[in-house]
Amino acid sequence: GYIIDKEGHTINIMNDQGIDKLGDIVESSVYSPNFQYYGQLHNMAHKMLGRQADPHGKYNMPPGVMEHFETATRDPTFFRLHKYMDNIFKEHKDTLHPYTKDDLEFSGVSIDSVGVEGELKTFFEEFEFDLRNAVDSAEGIEDVELKADVHRLNHNDFSFVATVNNNNDNEVLATFRLFLCPQHDNNGEEFTFTNGHWHCIEMDKFWKKLAPGKNKVTRKSGDSSVTVPDVPSFQSLIDAADKAVSDGSVFDMHNFERSCGIPNRMLLPKGQTDGMEFALILAVTDGSHDLTHEDTDSEHGGTHSHCGYHGHDYPDKRPMGFPLDRRIPDRRVLDETPNFKYTVVKVFHDEHLHHHEDH
Ligand SMILES: [Cu+2]
């Protein structure tokens, strides 16, 4: 469990920060402490797989699909490679000591219930992409309307709801961490805690002050800090800009400043007609320990979970995926920690094609 830097010194990675160091050498970051030795495994693998037809550049062939972000997922090997990359990080996490009750506990805070308001339902929708900005325009020639119809996954809006007790005499700052974990693997076998935690999906992470006593917390799916809303179409940007110019109003696009994150329509994994079972896990941890910022009401740019907070430190001191990032050899550690709670939910899928209206 160590890295050798370019002066030959060893860097210990058997700690909370180890994953960042490992990421620096595997994902070919400019922070790599020894680029010459570790190279750029992930990028290089994309190139090697993309250039199989012409490995030496003898025929001057264009790059393969694996060499472009936009096309890479069209090649099944993309998923094999990414599982391989993912396993490197899993192997590292598996060597770290599992969290103890002391690491996880939030004194005086317990969760009564966690659940969902509204149905968890996915569907495919017909979506019209405005491709107007993909064609050249010229003075004196009228604009050509260009649109493309695609089917894309979406889901109904819903909310996470929880009742959390604060048995302290004073207000406390809490970090809410929500995960959705598949109950069964691709063969229909039930996951155990030990091998299931790695398949959990982070749904949201946010901070909230808890008053003494019972706190009812509701969080809308659209506010999830792992997601961004749909990008407005080119035409709607033109219309909004024209309107602002003609009536002197403000060209307000602040809802779309968040540019990094999963599209919100993909927050839910595709369900099944008769419902696909997931464990919805909520961990409420001590925000006064976790949070790096003074501003406790801040949404940190709205997409901090995956992308951090632009121009600021990553707002959470805990590793990404905490507390499900490490092995859980004994599930009692979670079961007996009152600031953890899970419930089983079902994600349904509506087979009917929907039509997307507002774009
Ligand atoms: Cu990749």
UniProtKB/TrEMBL annotation:
The lineage of its organism: Eukaryota, Metazoa, Ecdysozoa, Arthropoda, Crustacea. Residues 75-86 form the Tyrosinase copper-binding domain. Signal peptide: none annotated. This is Hemocyanin. InterPro entries: Di-copper_centre_dom_sf, Hemocyanin/hexamerin, Hemocyanin/hexamerin_mid_dom, Hemocyanin_C, Hemocyanin_C_sf, Ig_E-set, Tyrosinase_Cu-bd. GO terms for molecular function: oxidoreductase activity. Residues 292-316 are annotated as: Disordered. It comes from Hirondellea gigas. Belongs to the tyrosinase family. Hemocyanin subfamily. Residues 292-302 have a biased composition (Basic and acidic residues). Gene3D superfamilies: Di-copper center containing domain from catechol oxidase, Hemocyanin, C-terminal domain.
